[in-house]
Amino acid sequence: MSEDLSNVPKPDELMRIDHKPPRKGWMDVPVDFKPGTYSYTAKAKNLKILGMPNPREWSPTDEDWKLPENWEEIVREGFKDRLDKYRSFQLFMDICVRCGACADKCHFFIGSGDPKNMPVLRAELMRSVYRKEFTTSGKIFGKLAGARELTVDVIKEWFYYFYQCTECRRCSVFCPYGIDTAEITMMGRELLHLLGCGINWAMEPVANCFRTGNHLGIQPHGFKDTLEFFADDIEDLTGIKINVPLNKKGAEILFVVPSGDYFGDPGTYTCMGYMMLFHELGLNYTWSTYASEGGNFGLFTSHEMIKRLNAKIYAEAKRLGVKWILGGECGHMWRVMHQYMDTMNGPADFLEVPTSPITGTRFENAKSTKMVHITEFTSDLMKHNKLRLDPGRNDNLIVTYHDSCNPARAMGLIEEPRYVIRNVCNHFHEMPENTIKEQTFCCGGGAGLGNDENMEMRLRGGFPRGNAVRYVQEKYGVNRLACVCAIDRATLVPVCDYWAPGVAVTGVHEMVANALLMKGEKERTTNLRGEPLPGKEEVEDE
Amino acid sequence: MILETYPPDASSFLKQEKNQFANPVGNTILQEIEDIYEELLHGRDSEKLSDFLDRIIKIRAIQDFSPAQAVAFIFHLKNAVREELGGEIRNDQLFEELLEFEHRIDKLALIAFNTYMKCREKVYEIRVAEVKNRVFSLLKRADMIGEISEQELDIREENIDSVV
């Protein structure tokens, strides 16, 4: 209804007011923690082992969050410290012109309709405090200058919305100034951590990783058992006995994957895929029980934590005396490797520029980090015809590809996974252009938010992705969503189950292994999942 | 009207952005409500209606609405018809037709209730499945579950055959 008429409301218009949310300024709308829309808080034991402040048991729904007594001072000083330390943060606090380009680009905003999920407003949650505390205009004019007091409610709001951002950086693609909302969220989370306000789904992996080397706390013997268990499964499928090189000194390549790949289905099939590929190539590589985690939830915690958790990878490469490092299908791991590892824990001058022992290709792009993405490695093999493949074995799959946020936006990995998929699948269909590549939509569960208690929020955030998947499902009969991220492989399962039922999630190297013709293999009747291969359905039924 | 149940800053976006992938919420609602209205006018079967409703309610079932708010949009249809056609209905004495039409809307509301519950059950089902998978992997890893394998079954059958 038009705005003019609202001045003279008719009776039925008055009735309608019930359905509309009240018109209030965003500063006056307090946060309401409803089940399904927030993550449980970090357990005290996890903060204690990391030496992080204010460990305690508490819940966001509690009236009293048991903040430290001088919490205002802590936030103020932490804020100032970060403004001094990070020029980008200072810049992002000052330069936004509110053009609105980012406003409708966030998957959480698109899926929820909550204005505070517009990236501009998410940043404004901090900027308003910045103005009040650190700018003259804000100190004098207060609300008129977009400034506000730092209160407990503000902290609650930060907790709610900075843990409602998956740091996917889609909004940054559209910002004419290049403001990186993920970095603002990171700063917000760092300040919250100073008060002991973190979430357990992020902090437990961090604590485990710090203590046992991987997110799930799997110990070396457990890791060994798991990989050997996969080798047995591979032998059942192909008749080929595969070696599992573990902590092998003098190996040429150290291979690092996210622990999700060897822990949960469907990531495990991708893990078996790597193993089969390396066996077929006769690659001189090794797994490590120390660097048994490529993922780094430090990225969702603080800069110091990224560095602490990442350090083991170069340390292990040095200890084992490898020449270079190869990394598996993981999302945020690659943001860390590509953008932080070198400056934080490098230079890795004890390593060589990665060179494929099979094709001789020198990966100049990884000259500095010495770490290559598995799809770069495999697409290079395919380009040089080094693999014998039968894509027909994947003919039961009609595939689309979800660009995982970090590989796509943080390292520009766009074409390599597609090249690999096209070589191993005959049926591949892209989702609409504004939902893939640099503009890809997040799964809704990254950055530590992929826990089950946060399911409703995940499904809201996952809707733009799910909507595009459903489109290709209806148009082309797509039944498999491929991706190169362990978090995706876990979180896209519910997203598809809810928004596009019937579409399963797969890693790229699972499909590679299915298509891979291995020397001396027996006739395969099923793929890695035990689904009958096309044309072998009857064999299975017998 | 449905889009106005969202906060004002959001509803203008939901109304204006016409790309179905950039604005799946707004576009789904507009598209499906049109289909629903068509079906209602023709008094057609409830199965199709339920499909159309499903697409809208699936969205609202996981958004920030109470159950009543999530499905209340059905009744907006009554307002819309009365508002748009109120004059004609009075002039042409179409009260019986109006009653019949509103009766269909009431039936629609019941279907909406079913659909809403189905969506919520699905959310919980997904949650449970996720937790179950995690626990199962853990138990398997800890060697605490000995699953009956296909191979084992084959051996057993062979044994039985040889006995018989």
Task: Indicate how many domains the architecture of chain A comprises.
Answer: 2
Order of helices and strands of chain B: HHHHHHH
What number is the mean pLDDT of chain B?
86
Most extensive interface, chain pair and sizes: A-B, 46 and 42 residues
- The percentage helix of chain B is over 70%
Q: Oligomerization state of this entry?
A: heterodimer
Instruction: Please give the radius of gyration of chain A in angstroms.
Output: 25 Å
Number of strands of chain A: 7
Structural class of chain B: mainly alpha
Q: With helices defined by DSSP (H or I, 4 residues minimum), what is the helix count of chain A? A: 23
Question: Whole-number average pLDDT of chain A?
Answer: 94
What is the count of DSSP helices of chain B, taking H or I runs of 4+ residues?
7
Q: Report the uncertain regions of chain B.
A: none
Shape of chain A: globular
Largest sheet, spatial ordering of strands of chain A: 2-1-3-4
Largest sheet descriptor of chain A: 4 strands, parallel
Structural class of chain A: mainly alpha
Please tally the β strands of chain B and state the result: 0
Describe it for me?
The complex is a heterodimer of chains A (542) and B (164). Chain A has 542 residues and is mostly helical. Chain A folds into two domains: 24-198, Fumarate Reductase Iron-sulfur Protein, Chain B, domain 2 (Orthogonal Bundle), CATH 1.10.1060; 206-537, no CATH class. Chain A is 47% helix and 4% strand. Chain A has helices spanning 11-16, 44-50, 71-85, 87-94, 107-112, 119-134, 136-141, 152-162, 170-174, 181-194, 200-212, 220-238, 260-263, 267-281, 303-320, 332-345, 374-383, 405-411, 415-424, 455-476, 486-499, 508-515, 537-541; strands at residues 253-256, 285-286, 324-327, 371-373, 399-401, 480-483, 504-507. In chain A, strand 6, helix 21 (486-499) and strand 7 (504-507) form a beta-alpha-beta unit. In chain A, helix 3 packs antiparallel against helix 10 (181-194) and helix 14 packs across helix 22 (508-515). The longest helix of chain A has 22 residues, at 455-476. Chain A is globular, with a radius of gyration of 25 Å. The mean pLDDT of chain A is 94. Chain B is mainly α. Chain B is built from seven helices and no strands. Chains A and B meet through helix 1, helix 5, helix 12, helix 20 and helix 21 of A and helix 1, helix 2, helix 5 and helix 6 of B.
